[in-house]
Structure formats: structure tokens, C-alpha cells
Design a protein that fits this description.
six-stranded mixed β-sheet, six-stranded parallel β-sheet, globular, about 35% helix, about 260 residues, binds NADPH dihydro-nicotinamide-adenine-dinucleotide phosphate, alpha/beta
Length: about 260
């Protein structure tokens, strides 16, 4: 039997650890599959590229998660709540879309205690998934974004929303950076003065970005705030995605064990 091919789509995508994580699981658990990366500029080309490459499944990262939702024939589970897809699995000629980011994040913050209020920085695909998940978990959720346009739909869904111009910092249990500020540059996700004032009042912080100490995380450590980077979230979403990729043939606990090893490679 030939190997099944999987890929991650994004732009940029060269920084992604997903190929390493998934390939090490496939190899260690003797699953006949291989995982690669595809840089995709135009999200509307996702579906045809998926079929052209004869893929069995894919993960989707910045900036195509909303396009991935549109590319699917059927959406299952939490992805239906948020309109954002980070995992696609092929069933025959149909593309099935899932979202494993939010559950991956809950896995990442399981050691943070008594989180009742959260400030989410950013209003893109990741923010959408996480804020909805926090809301479903009964947390009080506020969004702060650079531009106003993306906040409109959040307001309609009952979230408190602010731009840098009208935000007044108060105490939040958790501040989460879901922006891509700091991914390829040294930018802060919000103006430094505003961010410092906000972080000083919070208990915990988390950054969705992994693989580097972002200016946001540097600031957290200077202010002595307990924080995590995106590696744990990445692990959680990857474990769940691999479970779907293998049609649940691979056990979650086995996937988690092997995928964790790939983080020390
Ligand atoms: P999107 O492109 O959907 O959204 C990006 C958001 O970042 C927007 O709200 C945008 O604001 C904001 N933004 C971008 N640049 C800046 C800046 N310089 N200053 C302030 N705000 C900025 O991206 P995603 O939600 O898909 O991904 C966001 C980040 O999360 C990425 O860095 C990605 O790598 C990371 N991620 C990590 C995961 C993990 O497993 N650890 C999983 C998923 C994502 P505006 O509306 O004004 O443009």
C-alpha cells in the first residue's frame, strides 16, 4: 500500500513544526503516511491544490483558516460554532473540516487555575476559535484588536470588543496573544504602554506563537507573569488532528507520547 500524503497549508509556512510532529508519530506508530508543507498565497485555491496533490488530510495555518472553512463539503464539531477550520480530512471525494485549535489551547492552559476572565489580543481565525471556546466554558471574554473591522462580528456574538483607541486596561485572569505580531518581526501585539499596563494587572499570559521568544513573552517574563508559548497549544491541536488523520486508528495517548518526543528533536 502506498503512503498517504498529508500537508500543512499556510503563508508563511516554512517555520511550521507540524511536518516534524506528524511524521514522527507516523514513523514511530508504523502508520504508512507522510506529511509535508505547502506555501499557498491564495486561499481560494486551497480545495483544488488539495485534490491536485492527492492529499488525504491537511492542517491550515495563517492566513487561510476561514478560507479552509469555505473549502469543505461538511463541517463537524466545534468548527461549526466558529466558522474556522484548521484540520481537513478527506472522506472519498468530500472534504470534512474540523477545528482542533481551541481544545489544543485548553490542554495548554490546564495548569492555570481559576480563569474566569480573559483578554484576547487579535481578532483573526485563532481568536475566533479561542474566544468562542472560552465563552462556552463560561468565561468572561474581551477582545482587543488593531483594526475595528474584524471586531464587528464578535460584538454581534455578545463579546466585549475594543480597539487600541478606546481600550481601558482592567484586571484579567488571562491575557492571550492570538495576533501574528512577533511571528516574523519584533512587534508587540498592542502599543507597549497599553500592553504593559494590561499585563501588570493579569495573573497569566499565553502566546499562540511558538518557536521563538516573542516581544510579548519577553515582556511577560520581565513583568514576572507566569506564561506559556504556543508549543503546548500546537501539541494539543496536533494530537487531535493526528487522531482524525488516522481515522481514529491511532490511540490519543500513543500519539501524544510520540508527538511530545518530536518537540525535543
Ligand atoms: P489571522 O491572520 O487570522 O489574524 C491575525 C490577527 O493578528 C488579526 O487580528 C490582526 O489584526 C492581528 N495582527 C497582525 N499583525 C499585527 C500587528 N503587527 N500588531 C497588532 N495586531 C496584528 O491569523 P491566525 O489567527 O490564524 O493566527 C494568529 C497567530 O496564532 C499566528 O502567529 C499563528 O502562528 C498562531 N497560531 C498558533 C497555533 C499553535 O498551535 N500554537 C495555532 C494557530 C495559530 P488586524 O485585524 O488589525 O489585521
Amino acid at each position: 500500500m502506498s503512503k498517504k500524503l498529508f500537508a500543512i497549508f499556510g503563508d508563511p509556512v516554512s517555520h511550521s513544526r507540524s511536518p516534524l510532529m506528524h511524521n514522527s508519530v507516523f514513523k514511530k506508530l508504523n502508520y504508512k503516511a507522510c506529511y509535508t508543507r505547502v506555501r499557498l498565497e491564495d486561499g481560494t485555491k486551497l480545495r483544488e491544490t488539495f485534490f491536485d496533490l492527492k492529499l488525504y488530510g491537511a492542517n491550515i495555518t495563517v492566513p487561510h483558516k476561514e478560507a479552509a472553512f469555505k473549502a469543505c463539503d461538511e463541517i463537524r464539531g466545534f468548527a461549526k460554532e466558529v466558522g474556522v477550520v484548521n484540520t481537513i480530512v478527506r472522506e472519498g471525494e468530500k472534504l470534512i473540516g474540523y477545528n482542533t485549535d481551541a481544545d489544543g489551547f485548553m490542554f495548554a492552559i490546564k495548569d492555570f487555575k481559576n480563569i474566569r476572565s480573559v483578554l484576547v489580543l487579535g481578532a483573526g481565525g485563532t481568536a475566533k476559535a479561542l474566544s468562542k471556546k472560552f465563552q462556552l466554558e463560561g468565561m468572561d471574554v474581551t477582545l482587543l484588536n488593531r483594526s475595528e473591522s474584524r471586531l464587528v462580528s464578535y460584538r454581534e456574538d455578545g463579546f466585549k470588543t475594543f480597539t487600541f483607541e478606546d481600550f481601558k486596561p482592567i484586571a484579567y485572569d488571562l491575557v492571550v496573544n492570538t495576533t501574528s505580531a512577533g511571528l516574523q518581526d519584533e512587534a508587540y501585539p498592542a502599543p507597549l504602554k497599553l500592553l504593559t499596563k494590561t499585563l501588570k494587572e493579569c495573573n497569566y499570559a499565553a502566546d499562540a506563537i511558538y518557536g521563538k521568544v516573542t516581544p510579548f513573552l519577553k515582556l511577560c517574563s520581565e513583568l514576572k507573569i507566569e506564561s506559556i508559548d504556543g508549543a503546548k497549544m500546537l501539541l494539543g491541536q496536533g494530537v487531535l488532528a493526528s487522531h482524525y488523520f488516522s481515522n481514529k486508528e491511532l490511540e490519543l495517548s500513543d500519539i501524544e507520547r510520540e508527538m511530545k518526543h518530536s518537540f525535543s528533536i
